[in-house]
Design a protein that fits this description.
By secondary structure, this protein is of the alpha/beta class. Helices cover about 45% and strands about 15% of the residues. The chain has a 7-stranded parallel beta sheet with strand order 3-2-1-4-5-6-7, sandwiched between helices. α1 packs across α8.
């Protein structure tokens, strides 16, 4: 059996980027998916390409009824809900905290935090009668340390880590696992927009900043999401899995090369 035989998953923001890679991954391994997204044209095209295993649902994740409707579509046409991926996102409010309008704060938090709360809430309700399910939400390296994203984005992504732990604590007794994924810089349309939609430029920039020396692609993050959705991670809940080539470990690759490496080596010898 493939990992997602008999699986039915809702992916918010599933029409492009990490969401699209996740949708493709679930379907490739036997699963069925509802793409819950505002991008009507892209979402419909992806659903048509992937065939009967996929449905598109026009979804504003800030609207509770829209999330309820996407889950209802999954259960009515594709089977009992086994997985939920809260992936929809934006960069949102940028700039100094001293200058950020409260309206921009509210909009950013609605998409990045409130929508995750709603996704967990209603996925859990659908999964409870079946006694099993996996919910995966998107945090960020900006959700595990400061200085890696705009203020409100950072606040929201820290909130995803928190609700993941809290919801996992409650829902584990129902057989429902709740985890989060925290990507570092990844080549998507959202990050390319920061470089005037120059995908080549953002790919090079991310590769140069990566401790591993190459850029993270949507499939790299989707692979982690698929792991968290599948029974491969059946004993993991309440966890935030960081996928960032070691960026948040705090170490500098330069420290292990050249003169600095010699200094560290000799210091270690003196301690030993």
């Amino acid at each position: 059996m493939a990992r997602f035989d008999d699986a039915c998953v809702v992916v918010t923001g599933g029409a492009s980027g990490i969401g699209e890679a996740t949708v493709r991954g679930v379907v490739a391994e036997g699963g069925r998916v509802v793409i819950a997204d505002l991008q009507e044209e892209r979402g419909q095209a992806l659903a048509a390409e992937l065939g009967d295993a996929v449905r598109f649902h026009h979804t504003d994740v800030t609207n509770e009824d829209a999330i309820v409707s996407a889950i209802a579509l999954a259960e009515s046409e594709l089977g009992k809900l086994t997985g939920m991926v809260n992936n929809a996102g934006i960069v949102g409010a940028v700039g100094s905290i001293m200058d950020t309008p409260v309206e921009a704060y509210d909009h950013t938090m609605a998409i990045l935090a409130r929508a995750v709360f709603l996704g967990i809430k209603h996925a859990a309700r659908a999964m409870r009668p079946h006694g099993k399910g996996a919910i995966v939400s998107m945090s960020s390296t900006a959700g595990v340390m400061g200085g890696l994203g705009p203020h409100v984005y950072t606040m929201a992504k820290h909130g995803v880590v928190g609700i993941t732990k809290s919801a996992a604590s409650e829902l584990s007794g129902l057989g429902i696992r709740v985890n989060a994924i925290a990507p570092g810089g990844t080549v998507t349309a959202m990050t390319a927009a920061l470089a005037d939609n120059d995908t080549a430029a953002i790919t090079q920039s991310i590769a140069e900043a990566s401790p591993l020396g190459f850029a993270c692609m949507p499939e790299d993050i989707a692979n982690a999401i698929l792991f968290a959705l599948s029974d491969d991670s059946r004993y993991m809940t309440g966890h935030t899995l960081v996928i960032d080539a070691g960026e948040t470990t705090g170490g500098s690759p330069a420290a292990f090369h050249g003169e600095q490496a010699e200094i560290l080596l000799h210091a270690g010898q003196r301690r030993s």
